[in-house]
Amino acid sequence: MGDRRITDHPILDFDEGEVIHFTFDGKPMEGREGDTIASALHANGVKVLGYHFKTKRPRGFYCAIGNCSACLMIVNGKSNVRTCTEPLLPGMVVEKQLDRGVPDDV
Ligand code: FES
Questions:
Q1: Per-residue confidence in pLDDT tens, the chain, 106 aa
Q2: 11 Cβ partners below 8 Å, 6+ apart?
Q3: Is residue 100 a contact partner of residue 50, using CB atoms and an 8 Å limit?
Q4: How far, in Å, is the centroid of ligand 1 from the Cα of 59?
Q5: CATH class assigned to 19-94
Q6: Rounded Cα gap, residues 10 and 37, in angstroms
Q7: Domain boundaries, the chain
Q8: What is the pTM of this model?
Q9: Following DSSP, what letter does each residue of 46-69 receive, concatenated?
Q10: Distance 83 CA to ligand 1 centre (A)
C-alpha cells in the first residue's frame, strides 16, 4: 500500500515532514512528522481503527477532533487512546481495540 496523501492542491502547500516508523497490528508502517496516529493510518490505507466492544461493528474516523470515541486504539499498550488527536511518534506500537479497554486508574 502506498502513501495516499494529497500531494497537489490548487490552494494549499503541504510540507512532507520527516518519515516516522511505527507498527500497526504488528505490521511496519510509515507516517510523517505532523501526523496524528489516525492520519498516518489513513495515509497507509487503514480505515478500520477498531471494532465496537458490543456490536463488533468496525469503527473509524468520525469527528476527527477528539470529541467522540470512534478512533479509540491501543497505543504502546495503553487502551482508549484517541488516535485522531494523538501525535504520531517514532516507534509507536499501535493496535486495534476490540473491547472497552482498561481504565487509566487500574
Ligand atoms: S474520531 Fe472522534 S475522537 Fe477521534
A1: 567 888 889 999 888 889 999 999 999 999 999 999 999 999 999 999 999 999 999 999 999 999 999 999 999 999 999 999 999 999 999 999 998 888 775 5
A2: none
A3: no
A4: 10
A5: alpha beta
A6: 26
A7: 19-94
A8: 0.89
A9: ----EE-TTT--EE--SSSSSSSS
A10: 7
